[in-house]
Specification:
By secondary structure, this protein is mostly helical. Helices cover 58% and strands 0% of the residues. It is elongated and about 60 Å long.
């Protein structure tokens, strides 16, 4: 029986493949990755780099969701508590760091975000709300302009007026603030940002 559920990384992989194929030199694409990169023009290489960032974000968000699900899953034997303990790990952060071969702090950040965005099951098996639904929503890419763009601009203007002419406030505009003020889609929150 085949599943109709899409692979969560299929869209990211297809997007990367389209950017990679579009970036290849039409006359001499190259036989290996190093040669293909060498033959790409500057703009194409930067597009590939940007798309790699999107793929990395998709992988990290999926990893957080998987780790959150693993952390809540009971041990198959029922004796060890959770699946994490049954697999021989002290906690989900250690599990991620050892299985992915990353720093403990990185594994802990992914596990912490996973715990924040995972929906636990209630006593009757129903899905409950995740602890931080705003963080879960912010991790997903935005597909349409934010409705609250105008109030953010007004708040910034009010703050600037309240600071007075001396400009003693240390508020800085980030790229995300600028895109929100202009009404363009905001970039998704990174896993590191969500961990903070």
């Amino acid at each position: 029986m085949t599943s109709t559920a899409p692979n969560p990384l299929a869209a990211a992989a297809a997007g990367f493949d389209a950017v990679w194929q579009g970036a290849l030199d039409a006359i001499r694409p190259g036989s290996g990755v190093a040669e293909q990169l060498e033959n790409m023009n500057d703009e194409a290489v930067l597009r590939v780099l940007d798309e790699l960032g999107a793929v990395q974000h998709a992988v990290e968000v999926l990893a957080a969701r998987v780790v959150g699900a693993v952390a809540l899953r009971p041990s198959p034997s029922g004796r060890d508590g959770t699946l994490v303990r049954a697999a021989g790990y002290a906690n989900p952060g250690v599990m991620v760091s050892e299985r992915w071969r990353v720093a403990r702090a990185r594994g802990a950040a992914i596990a912490e975000v996973g715990a924040a965005i995972t929906q636990p099951r209630g006593l009757l098996g129903e899905l409950e709300a995740c602890p931080f639904p705003a963080v879960a929503a912010a991790l997903e890419p935005a597909s349409e302009p934010r409705d609250d763009a105008e109030p953010i601009r007004d708040l910034d203007a009010t703050t600037a007026q309240a600071d007075g002419p001396s400009g003693s406030s240390s508020s800085a505009t980030t790229d995300g603030d600028a895109s929100a003020a202009l009404g363009s889609p905001s970039a998704p929150l990174s896993v590191d940002g969500a961990a903070v």
